[in-house]
Amino acid sequence: MAKSHEIKVARRDVQGKGASRRLRHAGVVPGIVYGGDREPAMVEFNHNEIWLAQQNEWFYSSIIDLNLDGTLYKVLLRDMQRHPYKQLVMHLDFQRVNENEVLNVSVPLHFINEEISPAGKTADVLVTHELKEVHIACLPKDLPQSIEVDLAALTAGDIIYLSQLKLPAGVEIPALKLGKDHDDAVVIAKAPTAGEEAAE
Question: What is the model's pTM?
Answer without folding.
Answer: 0.77
